Amino acid sequence: MGSLPSFPWLQRRPAAPWCRTALGRDPSLQEAVNQVFEQLRGAGEADLALVFASASYASDLPRLLPLLQQKLSAGHWLGCVGGGVVGTDPAGVPHEIEHQPALAVTLLRLPGARLRPFAIDTTALPDLDGPAEPWRERVGAELEEGQSMLLLLDPTGTAINDLISGLDYAYPNITKVGGIAGPHSAAHGSLLFGSGAPGDSDPADTVRNGAVGCVIEGAWRLDPLVAQGCRPIGPVLEVEQAQRNVVIEVSCGSTRNSPVAALQSILTDLTPAEREQVKHSLFLGVGRSDFSLPSADLTPVADAPGSFLVRNLIGVDPRNGAVAVGERMRVGQKVQFQLRDADASRDESRQLLAGQARRRSEPLAAFLFACLGRGEGLYGQADGDVSLCREVFGTVPIAGLFCNGEIGPVGGTTHLHGYTASWGFLVPNDPPGGSAAPL
């Protein structure tokens, strides 16, 4: 028998990636879900569904995934409650919705991706001084090149910093992006975690405490961007004396002083408006050993966002001019005072987003985990961060939430932040020597 003829037009074409988003804004959870159904009508089977709900729905949270699974199909479901919700409306316009009911659902089809969802009990974590394997067993994924991780934490969870450190230990040099869910008064947790279809798991088990997340492998990854919203004032200083989180003495060149005395000398060069800002918007940027910083007697320009990890100043000792910082300090670290304001945040975000655009064309989706202290409270108007993103990526769907703490990398290490916008851009993962997955 001769060979059968070949018909190229009959050959199966590779599945195309897609992202579908919906935003429900009714005070009734059922009606908000109905709005989501209407907007996602005809959506195919997704690999991953992300669900972000405002705290006004917290009492009904155990009903949420079962309701959504009645008409939407996804292999994995992940989400949480937030202090506010970021979502994209039916017209394709993203919004930051604060102090109002909102439900944002994102469906993702990711050909070539391997998704490893996980849930971790944070009350019994492996030893940080032990081997990495117990951490990887909790996550259910081996360490591989090109991985990234979406991570959501319950605000009542214990050992949050230990968890982040342990995941960095087990999965070094991979992107981890996410945040701490919003608090609420209901008796259950704040996290959502489910499998593909109704009946696959107990509805009550879809709401979790601790931590949930998803390791993304294969053809797709998350590119991180952490905007801390601050600008430096004064020179870079070096810590000369420190105890735990208290900085006692700093130096600038050959001059040694208390941190308060160093700040007082900086104030003389500030404008009246900046001196007023110091009263309520002063932070300390803390350098890391792997950062590339200028010498201590130079003031760096603000063209290298992320050179410092911005931390709260939580106290002053008037007796010796020492300051307490929201970070453990050590002798030899570089530090610099920082001011947080809307203009600094816009400038930093635009610079970081432009850098992301140079590295990568428009992503399939963007996920924003923003501090509750941002939004209208920082910018004086709605949609501040998502509008900046749309200036660079004109049509990208955006989803996320306002967090009690944001997770993202600075200086190659994952940190828990405050007042920050931590972004994750979903982009093709270039294989070694190969080409990216098609968009």
Automatic annotation (TrEMBL):
Q: Where is the FIST C-domain domain?
A: 259-410
Topology versus the membrane: Multi-pass membrane protein
Read off the PANTHER family from this record: F-BOX ONLY PROTEIN 22
Q: Which InterPro entries match?
A: FIST_C, FIST_domain_N, UCP018953
UniProt superkingdom: Bacteria
> Which SMART domains does UniProt cross-reference here?
FIST, FIST_C
Report the principal subcellular site. Answer: membrane
Q: Does the keyword Membrane apply?
A: yes
Record-linked Pfam families: FIST, FIST_C
Q: Which UniProt key words apply to this protein?
A: Cell membrane, Membrane, Transmembrane, Transmembrane helix
Q: Which organism is it from?
A: Cyanobium gracile UHCC 0139
Q: Where is the FIST domain?
A: 45-254
Its localization reads: Cell membrane
Protein's name in the database: FIST N-terminal domain-containing protein
